[in-house]
Design goal:
Number of helices: 10
Number of strands: 22
Radius of gyration: 23 Å
Largest sheet: 8 strands, mixed
Helix content: 25-40%
Distance between the termini: 55 Å
Mean pLDDT: 92
Bound molecules: 5'-O-[hydroxy(phenylacetyl)phosphoryl]adenosine
Shape: globular
Length: 443
């Protein structure tokens, strides 16, 4: 159980009581907040009102949190279609911050926050950081991008609220990041998992020994990552690596986070209500079953969002967590319902290929998948870097290794692929989200 704490000014703070509420009490809060949220959305946002009217649902039909499934879904395309401010429920004079998320096509998606929303977002991050055992005495280096992306400023705000010494390093310039980490005495870091792996690799080049730094906690998110990547990070540094989840449409980072158990992410259910639905039919599924995560904001004023289809695939865990928090957990998000590609009739997720690669000891987590179409036949090329010690001039050795990797992919994914072993450091590194799949097919 976490402890109460004093900030730098000696001010006393309670442990995050909301994390430990009895479920019945939490449900009452959720019901109250949902009802207020639906009223606001219905009254102020034409899209929500029209959708509810089309289903014949009135705000007064929402009597308890269990009625949430009566409400219509919201999709990413709704935010695109109402660009930029059509989903706002308040006048822009009340909006103190805008962020935007790069849409997959065309215009970005714009999100806004009132002062109260900023409080809630800050509190969300604060609680997440506390789950990662981060405290006011920590020096936290925020290497998510600052700007319209919610990662940098989001984590910054919450870390400052917690009372940490925040180092707003933003993304990029790895040599400088490592220098800051060493010279400023960074004790906790947050960035994308792929960027931290890049830092580990670069550290030797710049003469920084990650094992002798005071850095002991890492908070990673914004893209899927695997248990194998966690092992790699924890083996090559002294950090304990935690998973943080979120999305701009709902608030940004801070919707959920792992605790010390490193086993599933607690959703801050008093602010963001999770459901799991069948991605095909939208029908709600019981806890324990895998499906698409759907989220409803329970406290957002500038842009209330009802039942947002995240496309993130996970399940709600049924057991209570050993840490004592009563907030339900979701399993780590390894894939989205929409990053699937179909190769010769087989559904493939990039995360499956990653798992297959990481089962081969010689492989590093640096890879990319290139899809092409030759004479109407799809081909998949997996380019992967192997550890420097395994990269050899001997054709037969490389051939044997290539075969081993191909077999691992066939076993797990069920498709045959072309494997290309590339020289160490040949695959372009990302300072933000890693782009893994290059779909060059003209269909
Ligand atoms: O990525 C917010 C964020 C910033 C989360 C920093 C965590 C840390 P968007 O750019 O809107 O927001 O992208 C949201 O990224 O729907 C997931 O598909 C993916 N994602 C975010 N966190 C994780 C994670 C930010 N921990 C989309 N694991 C989401 C897997 C994640 N996927």
């Amino acid at each position: 159980m976490e402890q109460n704490w004093n900030d730098k000014n000696g001010k006393f703070h309670m442990a995050s009581a909301m994390d430990y509420l009895p479920r019945e009490q939490l449900r009452n809060i959720q019901t109250q907040r949902l009802r207020a949220m639906v009223e606001l959305a219905y009254e102020k946002v034409p899209l929500h009102r029209n959708r509810m009217d089309a289903l014949g649902v009135k705000p007064s039909d929402i009597k308890s949190i269990d009625d949430i499934s009566k409400l219509p879904f919201t999709q990413k395309s709704d935010l695109r279609d109402t660009y930029p401010y059509g989903m706002f429920a308040v006048d822009t004079s009340e909006v103190v911050r805008l962020h935007a998320s790069s849409g997959t096509t065309g215009k970005p998606i714009v999100v806004g926050y009132t002062e109260d929303d900023m409080e809630v977002w800050g509190d969300s991050i604060l609680r997440c950081l506390r789950m990662c055992s981060i405290a006011p005495k920590d020096f936290i280096q925020v290497c998510f991008g600052y700007g319209l992306f919610t990662g940098g400023l989001g984590l910054h705000g919450g870390a400052e609220k917690l009372g940490c010494t925040v180092i707003p390093a933003s993304g990029g310039n790895t040599e400088r990041q490592l220098m800051i980490m060493r010279d400023f005495g960074t004790t906790a870091i947050c960035c994308t998992p792929s960027y931290f792996i890049h830092m580990i690799e670069e550290s030797q080049k710049y003469g920084v020994d990650m094992k002798t730094l005071p850095l002991t906690r890492g908070v990673f998110g914004a893209e899927p990552w695997s248990e194998q990547m966690r092992m790699y990070m924890q083996k090559n540094t002294n950090i304990k690596a935690y998973d943080i989840y979120g999305l701009s449409e709902i608030t940004g980072p801070g919707v959920g986070c792992e605790c010390g158990e490193q086993n599933g992410l607690h959703i801050l259910e008093d602010y963001y209500y999770p459901e799991i639905v069948d991605p095909e039919t939208g029908v709600p599924l019981p806890d324990g079953e895998e499906g698409e995560l759907v989220l409803t904001t329970l406290s957002k004023r500038a842009m209330p969002i009802l039942r947002y289809r995240t496309h993130d695939i996970t399940s709600i865990m049924t057991e209570t967590c050993k840490c004592g928090r009563t907030l339900r957990r979701i399993r780590r998000i390894g894939r989205r319902s929409d990053d699937m590609f179909i190769i010769r009739g087989v559904n493939v997720f990039p995360s499956q290929i990653e798992v297959a690669l990481m089962r081969v000891e010689e492989c590093t987590p640096n890879y990319r998948i290139i899809l092409e179409r030759e004479k109407d036949l799809d081909t998949v090329t997996v380019e992967v870097e192997v550890g420097e010690q395994y990269y050899s001039d001997s054709v037969s050795e490389l051939d044997a290794l290539r075969k081993k990797i191909r077999t691992s992919i066939v076993n797990i994914v069920g498709i045959s692929v072309v494997v290309k072993i590339v020289e160490p450091n040949k695959i372009p590194r990302s300072e933000g989200k890693a782009k893994r799949v290059f779909d060059n097919r003209k269909i």
